[in-house]
Here is the input.
Amino acid sequence: MRWADNPHYDDALREIVAQGSGASWDEIAATLTSTLGVPFTGDQVSARARRMGLERPTPTAALAATVSNERSRALRLAERREATAALRDQARWEDFLDIVRGELLVPPADQRPPATTPAGPGTPETMCLVVSDIHIGKLVEKDVTGPGFGYDQSVFAARQAELLNAVLRLRDIHSQHGPIPKLILFFVGDGVDGVDMRRGHAHRVDIQTATAQTIRLAQFFAWLLRSLAPWFPEGIDLNWEFGNHGRVGEFGVNLPSDNWDYLAGVMVRENVADLSSVRVNVHTQQYGIYQIGPLVAYAEHGNSIRGGGGSPAVKRHVASLQNLHRMVFDLVLMGHFHTSEYLTAGGAKVFMNGAWDGGDDFSVNQLVAASDPAQWAFGVHPRRGLTWMYEIALAPRRRSTPVLS
Ligand SMILES: [Mn+2]
Here is the structure.
């Protein structure tokens, strides 16, 4: 925490000192900690107060200040009583108008008060979340895959809620150690399922147009950002990469960003333009390179990897990326293979997301494989880098059916 970057800390301190309670610096620090949700020590507070030229009132001075405050308050009350008596009717009318105005006033979304929760005294860390392979519009019927699988619009809706809850739960858990003031979201593609990716595709969707799927994708992320914004006082960054399922036209015919995912990203950016703490970064190349604290992260969907999603192929691919960009990556964030994996590729840690749709006809019946709907989340310490990681499960563990005993 750099005090000088947060002028509202000064305001809060000045206000507490002005109350003249005679509290110790440690007590004032405790009050600031609970008001602002950021840990303060007595030494920190007294040093800052000295720089601001504030003096902590001694008990005698505090008493004198209280007496004088009380006297002027009594005076003000007496004046007000007199004025109210004289102008009673007008005052009542004004009161009534005030109530009406108050009821009609709808505060803009970004003026909602930030949710302040007490946080531990540890170093603030940034939370990161990787979202991908949502496949909005995809239909997987249990008749085809068995009851452990299945995906449609209602399953998608339930998993949205599960994701939001998981992020808030993780934030809560880690706040007990230290504040989590900032969230970085990575969308790495395949938000929409598409409608003409391959032969027979149209029969396996329950949202029949790519345009309608795109609208759902944009609505989902706008909802997620609006729901999360009050919990992260230093803001949310959403970084947006597109996948292969949103491709418009045949493979290789158009430029990469001729893609429904890309369009949804731009729609999200427009939708949340009124949220001052949220930044949405959508670009037309099919990857992004980001600095997160001490770490360099490379994010992409992953469809340019040749030879499957196994460890040797991913290692070759990450080595090629580092050669191509003449950079070393600490993190690689991706999806595409519908397999939740945590891999090492040289010095890079690779987070590969699972898919929201789980198993489908092809994966279950041909590949004999199915993804768990899992998405990665992790914490970044400003000096130590990667500190914690979770595989967020969007569905309960699959059970065998029928249950025989
Ligand atoms: Mn996918």
User: Anything to note?
Assistant: The chain has two domains: 3-57, 124-393.
